[in-house]
Design goal:
The complex is a heterodimer. By secondary structure, chain A is an alpha+beta fold. Chain A contains 3 helices and 7 strands, in the order βαβββααβββ. Chain B has 22 helices and 4 strands. In chain B, a hairpin with a 2-residue loop joins β3 and β4. The chains are: A alpha+beta, B mainly alpha.
């Protein structure tokens, strides 16, 4: 498992609210591996994964508060850094 | 000109840095009497940082929204008789174990965080703990509300809190949470927010809940994911508190490492119940315990400890053993339940042919060799009418309180793992080196353990016979025993005409 030693992940519920966030993750993290499992979507990436407010807003065509992420969040791994513009997970 | 809306950082700072003060009428040490005796040295509480920077207004707004979503699902599930769309009614055994074994831990965590929300000296830490105290209470309530629908239709769900304080296998989660609650505040938060939430709740609330969805239980998956979204905040906070303690003073490292070793092992032993739910109680399992362990502990836990190694922290002691045991524990614990099914508050059942084929595939090195023969032997006895539940009571580990069923998986998987030590002229027995180490560091704490089997033999649990003890547990005869032929089973047949458990029998 040593090749996966720096994987961060973000898991969201598999629902309509989460879809644009998942699409934004795909746009901003081309390396991310997206797995659909019963009821949930697991997005994992080596080292770092970011959700950008602007990319989500482009997907949904309205203003989006980064903290809305909490509503459909299931789980995550990594150090969290959040502000108005982005939500980032990383291992140092 | 009205000022522009404050940004997230500024709002969080105003909430958590301006609301506390240095007391003058009373000494700070008298106002906050509990946060120094454990030896953790804090030089600057202002270095405490909540990465989500959640303020009270945002907290209430988002939590209210989560509740609305959850209750819409629960209502819809109840209105549409969602219970009839389960994969099988035997699946409810997992939910019975959940409401009696997990929900009361949520309440215990609420009590613990409410205490910390008063007693940490730093205001940022107090605010975070207050929010978490409310979260944990929310989890307990939403679980009771969700599962109360099943209580209308199935046995064994009627009195979880009474049972948590008495039942033999529920002393495992009870002892775990009371160990944390009776520790100091820094140890408590290391135990719950870090060892339990960060390293281990992912195994309960992600693959198991995904499994609930897979078995048609949309009510449980919804409360599970809703709770876990709060846990994500708790885990993040748990990681921050570890980093905070390690950055504050180098003397904190050995204390934190010892807590990490202890609470990893405590939480891991508790997870033996979850492993069993995942592999045996889910009618259909999307992921085995072993697969879940590899993803959520070996990979993600590995990444986490790699990250923390810059502070000098290493992987918790005995983690290699835990990984080796992942091939065994679910089979061992389900065997115990099946052999003592006359004294469990949920129905037991032998794995179907289909389930055993799946277990063989998921556990190619262990299932056929060590465990399939046992289940097939019991199935043969059941068919011949000679199967009997155990009449004796199992010996329990003094620390984790799990019956002594774990084996020497690294050397001889057929040999029971058995450790013993002496203290004050008495012998104490353990399931593992991990539990023995925990005892030997604080023997005066663990000699007080309320071991259900000892208590039964001492006459403190309602009487000397199994029916008397079960009555004291408030188990009715309809709650216990084999699923086949139970009231739950009969009701399911009435609804569905036929079912999976009978097809194999």
């Amino acid at each position: 498992m040593s090749d996966k030693k720096n994987t961060v992940f973000l898991i969201l519920q598999d629902n309509e609210d989460a879809r644009p966030i998942i699409e934004a993750v795909e746009v901003d993290n081309p390396e991310a591996n997206i797995q659909y499992q019963p009821g949930m979507v697991r997005m994992e990436c080596a080292g770092k994964l970011v959700v950008n407010r602007e990319t989500v807003e482009e997907q949904i065509g309205r203003e989006w508060d980064v903290q809305e992420l909490h509503l459909n969040l299931v789980s995550l791994a990594g150090n969290v850094d959040e502000d108005e513009d982005q939500f980032e997970l990383s291992w140092h | 000109m009205p000022s522009k809306k404050l940004n997230l950082r500024k709002r969080y700072e105003l909430l958590t840095r301006g609301m506390g003060w240095e007391t003058t009428h009373q000494k700070m040490d008298d106002v906050f009497p509990y946060d120094t005796f454990e030896g953790i040295k804090i030089t600057d509480w202002d270095k405490w940082e909540d990465p989500f920077r959640l303020t009270m207004d945002a907290y209430w707004k988002f939590q209210a929204e989560k509740e609305r979503k959850l209750y819409a699902v629960i209502d819809s599930f109840a209105q549409n008789n969602g219970q009839t769309n389960l994969a099988d009614a035997s699946y409810l055994s997992a939910i019975k174990l959940f409401i009696t074994g997990v929900t009361p831990i949520e309440y215990a965590a609420h009590r613990g965080f409410a205490h910390l929300g008063r007693h940490f000296r730093g205001d940022g830490a107090r605010i975070a703990c207050q929010m978490q105290a409310i979260d944990e209470l929310r989890h307990q309530q939403t679980q009771v509300h969700t599962i109360s629908h099943y209580n209308k239709h199935f046995d064994g769900l009627h009195d979880p809190f009474h049972q948590f304080d008495r039942v033999w296998y529920l002393s495992v989660p009870k002892a775990f949470s009371e160990d944390a609650l009776s520790a100091g505040p820094f140890e408590f938060i290391t135990s719950i927010s870090f060892a339990f939430e960060y390293v281990l709740t992912n195994l309960l609330f992600v693959p198991f809940m995904s499994g609930a969805a897979y078995n048609g239980d949309m009510a449980t998956v919804t409360f599970g994911f809703s709770a876990q979204s709060d846990e994500s905040r708790h885990m993040t906070l748990g990681l921050e508190i570890i980093k905070f303690m390690l950055e504050q003073h180098e003397d904190n490292l050995p204390i934190v490492q010892r807590w990490m070793d202890k609470h990893f092992w405590r939480a891991y032993r508790l997870l033996a119940l979850v492993a069993t739910m995942q592999d045996y109680m889910l009618t259909n399992s999307p992921m085995s315990w072993k697969e879940a362990w590899d993803v959520y502990f070996v990979e993600n836990g590995g990444a986490l400890f790699e990250d923390l190694s810059r502070y000098g922290l290493r992987m918790p002691k005995y983690h290699e053993l835990a990984t080796a045991e992942a091939d065994h524990i679910s089979h061992q614990v389900w065997s115990v339940f099946c052999s003592l099914g006359n004294a469990t508050g949920f129905h037991t059942f032998l794995p179907t042919e289909e389930k055993m084929a799946w277990l063989s595939e998921k556990y190619p090195d262990t299932f056929d060799k060590y465990y399939r023969p046992r289940f097939e032997y019991w199935a043969k006895q059941q068919a011949e009418g000679t199967f009997e539940f155990q009449k004796g009571l199992p010996q329990l580990c003094q620390v984790c309180q799990v019956p002594m069923v774990f084996t020497e998986v690294q050397t001889d998987p057929m040999q029971i793992s058995y450790r013993v030590t002496e203290h004050g002229g008495d012998k104490y027995h353990f399931c593992s080196d991990g539990c023995k180490d925990i005892f030997e560091y604080e023997p005066e704490k663990y000699v007080q353990a309320w071991l259900p089997v000892h208590q039964i033999y001492q006459g403190n649990c309602g009487g000397a016979t199994i029916p008397e003890v079960l009555e004291w547990y408030k188990f009715s005869p309809d709650d216990t025993g084999d699923y086949i032929g139970s009231r739950d089973h009969a009701r399911w047949q009435e609804w569905k005409g036929t079912d999976a458990m009978v097809k194999q029998a």
